[in-house]
Automatic annotation (TrEMBL):
It comes from Holdemania filiformis DSM 12042. This is Pyridine nucleotide-disulfide oxidoreductase. Pfam families: Oxidored_FMN, Pyr_redox_2. The keyword Metal-binding applies. In the N-terminal section; belongs to the NADH:flavin oxidoreductase/NADH oxidase family. It comes from the Bacteria.
Amino acid sequence: MEYPHLFSPIQLNKLTLRNRIVAAPIGELYEPKARGGAGLVVCGHTIVEPGRSSFASGEEPTAFFKYEVEKTRQKIRACHRYGARASIEIFHAGQYARVKDHAWGPCSLIREDGVEVKALDSAEMERIAGLFAEAAQQAKTLGFDAIFLHFGHGWLAAQFLSPLFNHRTDEYGGSLPNRARFPLLILRKIREAVGPEFPVDMRISGEECVPGSIPFEDTLAFIQMAEPYIDGVQISAGLDINHEGNVHMATTNFKEHMPNLKWARTVKKTCPGLVVSVVGAIMNPSEAEQILANGDVDLVAFGRAFIADPNWPNKAREGRTCDIVPCLRCLQCYHIATNRQNVGCSVNPRYCNETLIPERMIPAEQAQRVVIIGAGPAGLNAAITASRRGHEVIVLEKSTEIGGALNTIAREYYKEDIRSYRDYLTNQFAQCDIDLRLNTAADRSMIEALHPQALIIACGAQPVTPPVPGIDQSFVMGFTEAIHHPERIGKQVVIIGGGTIGAEIGLELAERKGRQVTIVEMTDTLASQGNLLYRIALRQKLDPLTNFTALTETRCIQIGDHEVEILHQTEQRKLKADTVIIAAGVRTNRAFVNSLYGICPQTFEVGDALQPRKIQEAVFEGTGVALSIE
């Protein structure tokens, strides 16, 4: 077996897990994760105190409420049906709860939304600890194989542990033993309720990653205090509601892979009797196998990776690593990042679209000749899907290789995950019987000669060249040239356009190449196309750089002799520039797209050929239209 450590069994107390893979509690689809081969599936959460402990609604019931309990039981069945073990997260949001009246926390305060937070006294702590124990007992009685206690990410237990939240001066504040008093009470009552042989796992943030929060040394010391009551600990990071910490909980492409491993490794060395797991940007089976083989951890946990591909474990076990759909860490699946708009997965078009995209490919009733113009992410997904459904597929690509804009994006330093996705698509494409014609600039007569029965226009979009005087000079280049030929870029750089492309080019040039970078952006927001958490993570990378400046609400008037004349709000001035990079976005060639209508009845526009957007739309539309062709 290619990954012997990943697929070896392990004991969690008296529970045997078939492998070292944990599906973290993200999303509401648990059966696909069990069927996909995870050893332990954490099937969402239960709150412990209705009305005062939910992060979603003051109306949320516990998972064991009489009108919810059978639905909860079905989660257990879904896991056991495929040989996975089932766990459930036990949760209290504390001061961040959505409530009917007031919230509980370590300290009294009035939240920004006007809700009163009352400091817990010892009697209420005893009561709430009892509710945790009751939920644990109910989980055991219903048939869960383990429980998963959420003591991280800034929720109630973490609020007591962290000096960021806990400013008490009594026996529950100040020193770590005091701050740990209430969390340890919860653990003790849970262990008394479930007995010595029932598996108790606990998630905690190694660090919360914002100033004034708990240091790792305190986290480690608390884990040692908790060890008599728990069997396992999962090391995460960051905070949830605090967005500055959230980007370290659900990492973006600006964070390295496996950022929490350093803390998990130390916990394993310090507490060898605990089953230690780590979550966070473990992106492929090789990474997981290596840290298990090294003895760094005992289990590996996956959240967004299993949204991208719920069959990740089975594919790894079968030696089909190249068939695993890689997560981009774009955070489009996260409601906070997207403000609950356009939530989905960039690489799994079925996620949040279960009624639109079938789980299994349905063969076409009658094979059609499908011509696809363009081999970017939209065209490739359309071609792969159409071919697998049995259609005859011809792809016309004007460049020398497939991949489209992915080939340019993948060259950037912080686009390792994009490189993996491009390689995945290239591999999937190669497995299909597709007539690929490179170096072929399609036009109407060429397509007519192919007699398609369906035409998919996936020609992408072209860089915009703004009408700026002096833009045709030799020291001015487009963003594509800048990415492909960084050696042509001088010391002082002005980037015209601060969208995601311009911002990431600027970051890399300033941080990695030591260039002096100024971005000129017309709007009031840098990287406005990016979601909320992406922009925060980008800003956290840019803020420490002294050689980077972003001028928003600024317009480029003209480009002179190695200088750029700008209008910054009401101030007109000049910026020196060895190199000017144009990153003013991309635009669809509507005239070309419109010229292709009328060739055949089934004509579709997908991806940037329709309008410039994200990979998410390209993948969904390319896959979706290919599924509709009959």
